[in-house]
Design brief:
TPR_rpt, Serine Threonine Protein Phosphatase 5, Tetratricopeptide repeat, about 500 residues, TPR_24, disordered C terminus, mainly alpha, two-stranded parallel ribbon
Amino acid sequence: MICSGPQLREKRLQRRCAFNLGAAYVETGEPQKGLDVLSRTQPGERGERIADLQFNLATAHEALGDRTQAARHYLQAAQLYRSQGDAGAEADTCVRLAHCHLLRKEWDEAAASFQRAAESYKLAGNASAAALALKDAGKHMLQSGRSSSDDIISVLTDSLEMSVNMSDQQTLGKLLSDVALSFSQMRLFSEASECLEQALPLVSSKPHRLAVVLQNLGAVYNSLGQYQQSLRFHREAAALHGALGSRGAQGRCFSNLGFALVELGELEEAWESYLHAQQAFRDTDDPSGQWQACEGLGGIKLQMKDPDKASMYYKDALQLLCKCQDVSVSVQERLVSELSEALQQKLRIQQRGAASQRTAPERHHDRRQPRTMAVRSDVQQWRRDMQDGENAPADRKQHSQTITSSETLLQQEQEQDHHHNTLPEANRNLNNTYDKAEMNPQIVPSESSHGDVPRSVQMNGRHPLVRSTVTPPLTPPDSDQAPPLMRRLKSRFCTVM
C-alpha cells in the first residue's frame, strides 16, 4: 500500500520527533529511555539510516557501559559522515570511538582511531584538534608496544608541527608537556627537555601545571646527567608543590633534588633533601617513596663512612619495600647488595682498628672467611626478623626467596673494597599527573585529553613523569583545564529526516 503525501509527511514528522526525544533522553542522563526511543526510530529502508542516529545510539550505549555496541555504532556513524563529506563530524566521532577502545584497553585500535581523527581534522581545517589527536595517537602507539620507534616519533613530530599555530596557550602547554612525557618514555630526554622548556612560559598562569612542568624539567635534566642545571627546577617545583599542598609531589621533588646533590658531591645538603622527602612520604603514607628516600639516606651514610646508620636505612628500605606491590626482583637484589656492602664496610673499619693494635705478623693473617661469615650472619638475621614481623604481606615468601637467591651475589661481592658513590639510577621522580592538592598521595596515571588510563612510565628515576589528570573527555567550562577536544559533542538533534 502506497502512503499518500499527508501520511508520508506525518510518518516523517513522527520519526523526527522520536529521534529528537531519544536524543533528549540521552542528553539529560536517561540513556536507557533514549535508547528505547531511538531504536524505534530506525526506518525500514537501509538507505534512510542517518549518521546522527548512529551517533546517538552509540552515545546511549556508551552511557550504559556497553562499549562494544557503542564502538560499532560510532564506526558506522564515522563511515556515514565520511560518505556525506562531513570531515569535522567524522573526526569527532573517531575520537569518541577511540575513547571506547581505550576503556576496553585496545591500545592499537585507539591509536588508529586517533590517527583517523587527525586526518579528518586536517581536512576540516582544524589543525589544533589534529595536533591533539596525533599526540594521543603517539602516546597509545607507545603504550601498545607494537609500533616501531620511528613510527611513534613521526606521529609525535607531526603533532608538534600541527600545533605551531595553536592559539590556546594553555592547551599548547599541556600538549608540549604530554609529548615530552612520550619522548621521555622512549628515553629521548633531549627532545623531552626542549618540549618542557617551551611549555614552561605557557603554563606559568596555572600553578599546578607549572609545578608539574618544573618537576619534570628537573627530572629530565637528572636523566641527562645535567645535575647542576636541574637544581633550580627541583627547588622551585618543591616550593610550589608545598605552597599548593601537594605534599607527595613535594616529596618526590626533594628526592630528585637529593639525588642530584649526591651526584654533585654536596652530601650534607643532599642529606637534608632526603630527610625532607622521607617526612613528606610519611605524611602521605607512601611506602614506595619512603623506601626510596631511605635508600638515598643509606647511600649518603655509606659515603660518609657511617656503615651503622647506612645499614639501618637499608634495612628500613627493605622493610618498607614489602609493603609495596609490583616491585621488581632487581630492586630487592640491589637493596640487599647495598646492605651487604654497608656491613662489609663496618667489618673493614673494625678490622683496621683491631689490626693497628696487633703485631706485624698478625696483620698478615687471612681474615676473609670470618668477614664473609659475619656479613652472611647479619643478613640472615635480618631475614629472620622480616619473617617474624607481625605485618608480613601475603607475598612474603616470594620476598624471602628473592633475598635468599641473592646470597651468591653477596659472596661474589665480598672481595670488593669500594662502595657505590652514587645511587644506581639517575632519577625516579618523573611525574605524570598534574597534582591537585594531594587528594590522593599516590601517583595517579594520566588521562589524555580524550580520556584513558595508560601504563606508568618507569625511567631511570624515582617516580614516573607527571601527566595531567585535570582534562577528562568532557569538562565544565569554568574548569582551569585545557579545553578538551570533545566538549561540544553531545547528542545530535535532527531537523530534517
